[in-house]
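Reply to dn_fold:

You asked what the input looked like. This is it:
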Amino acid sequence: MFAADVGVHGVMTLDEPIDMAVAPGDDLVWVAERAGLVLRVDMDNGEVVETVLDITGETEATGEQGLLGIAVTDRWLFANYTDLHGDTRVDAFERVGTGLGDRRRTILTQSQPFKNHNGGDLAIGPDGFLYVGFGDGGSGGDPLNAGQDPTTWLGAVLRIDPTPDGAEPYVVPAGNPFVAGEGQSPAGRPEIFLIGVRNPWRFSFDRATGDLWIADVGQDSYEEVTVLLADNGGGLGANLGWRLREGLHAFAGDEPSGHADPVWEYGQDDGCSVTGGFVYRGTAIADLYGAYVFGDYCTSRLWAVQLSTGEVEFRDLGVEVPGGSLASFGEDAHGELYTLSLNGPVARIVPE
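and this is what came back:
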């Protein structure tokens, strides 16, 4: 990682690009714009080939709202967005060829008490299930104590098995931590996979190991990155600490049981809002292989951390994202990484 010499190569400019996904069976990537479009994009030529989805009349890109995340399987596009009332919806759209057909189903909804901390990320795990990230509901300091309340989806990451063409829109995996066993009552909502997040702004699975990496936006002092190793359950039933903890520090109480400390934190002298990325598994930058690449929305600098012989190593990659306002990262089918600026530029991380 310390030998990797990287740069960024501008690919194209879009309208508030906010997420990117690989669509199985499609050579092109799918990019979401916050206003409500999903586009098929040829990254090699920097061209939008077609509009896959248009829900611009169903959401409003303002503040922390809008179309916030997408995930794609061989049959469905899943979109996480705030509706015109500001509440969260995750809808499934059936794929037909390189586009979408007419079939659509709402998978889940969640009322949002405030306009911020909607979370919004989606990811397909190595187990094939859909993971859904929710912030703590908003305002500041988690006034609802949602982060430590397993009876609400707020402040949690869910794990569900979507069944858009079934009798119910999803099935709860039997291994989820709050699924009641025979003769037992659940202590929390069964869809929950882990709790204790404030506003998880991007999480991803390492395609080589299955480890789950979560970047959680801090309150006033610390931004944090947590890795949940697949060999230890991948975060099943974990508590990331909010609002009792902010990073490695006390915020509003004692450390909870089952707490998973972050592997990296930084103070707000170095940034204001962490943007999670991916473990690099591409081939273009051999020295970066196995490092988790992430950044900060405000500084738009690219950083990397790597777990090596039980220690966490950090490196500032010395690169700033074109356009600033680092909203998200993208990973293509080959493991190469891209940056998405809310101001428009999309760039590829390349060797220098």
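The chain is about 0% helix and 45% strand.
Hope that clears it up.
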